[in-house]
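Anyone able to model this chain together with pyridoxal-5'-phosphate?
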Amino acid sequence: MSATPNNLDAYWMPFTANRAFKAAPRMMVAAEGMHYTTGDGRKVLDGTAGLWCCNAGHARPKIVEAISRQAREMDYSPAFQMGHPKAFELASRLVRLMPGALDHVFFTNSGSESVETALKMAIAYHRLNGQGERVRLIGRERGYHGVNFGGMAVGGMTANRKMFGSLVTGVDHMRHTHGDPRNFFAKGEPEFGAELADDLERLCTLHDPSTIAAVIVEPVQGSAGVFVPPKGYLKRLRETCDRHGILLIFDEVITGYGRLGTPFAVDYFGVEPDIVTTAKGLTNGVIPMGAVFVQKKIHDAFMQGPPNAVEFFHGYTYSANPMACAAALGTLDTYAEEGLLTRGASLAGYWADAAHSLNDISIVADIRTLGLIAGIELRSIDGKPTARAFDAYLKCFAAGLLVRTTGDIIALSPPLIVEKAQIDEIFDTIRTVLQQVA
Ligand SMILES: Cc1ncc(COP(=O)(O)O)c(C=O)c1O
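re: yes, here you go
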């Protein structure tokens, strides 16, 4: 099979500069372990776990076997008024990974769908509890919660919002937590800024808390450029939500499944939200799937009325798709056998030291790390925001390293199987490239 298709025209690519890409395409044709192979036969070290999703690396045997077996056994079964054993097995195994009362799971097909599901659950939950006036949703500047209308509305990335009209109404935003120079080059959680969580209290005063259904935040903001919450910030949000009967949603699409060196950010920060949205690492990115974890009180609020009536008018044709369930079970087996959900904890120090070793490069404005995540913020070229980081991205790719950029920030999130020598390779390559784009 040719690695080079003869026509690139028909495919409208997502979140891509289509014309520039098609003028100079970057094609991946194979992947194994920590590496991709490009169309021209080069090996590229995966510094981003695909798109923050291939946490166990690529072509993992347990996952490949699970989906091959499932395709032969049963390719699809209807998702509504019907079940199959692997969906129940997967849900039971997932809730055992999650601490506290987060003991029910609703399946979706992506992070965006998990977010929409969570927001709808929150509003419906209050209505079921006789508080139908709680309809407002609170997000955060620079938040990313996917691309569907609810997620876009609570999200706070301007470019993702501005073209799409009035979005969902009744949404407000807290300030983001980035920018205090005292926090620059912090390893782990920065010291300053927990009081920014009090923005929620101000929004409660403005709107009256009785109108607010839920607050949604990424425990660590990923897509906008790796913003680690200040020490105590998330606890403070939890306390404010508790005071006012507001549900707290953690969007763990990036932080879930071992990224921080704990199974979930819930464990890392010791803060228990009411709802947790996940996707990506759930199936190692192999088959699209998301999972929304909810506390028992939320699940149980829906379980009323006649027992033969549908309780939640929501779901997807591919919710708990058998192929996706098989991929997720193979993924959980791989995580368990190799201790990947906590492996990041033993590498986090080495990772942080390697990332922060770039702090002597003149164009590096800030470095942020937590678990196996790093954000390297570059000084922008005057009048050309994003140009420097994108140039670095292209040069890294040419040098055999896949990184991701957002604005002028390089974001890194390697598969959790990464070895120390590969961590060295990642930051040695970036050092060379940053010297070239300085
Ligand atoms: C925190 C967060 N939420 C939601 C999403 C959307 O996920 P998807 O692209 O699977 O719809 C992402 C994707 O990066 C994310 O990082």
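The pocket of pyridoxal-5'-phosphate is lined by residues 110-112, 115, 144-146, 218, 222-223, 251, 253-254, 279 (CB under 6 Å).
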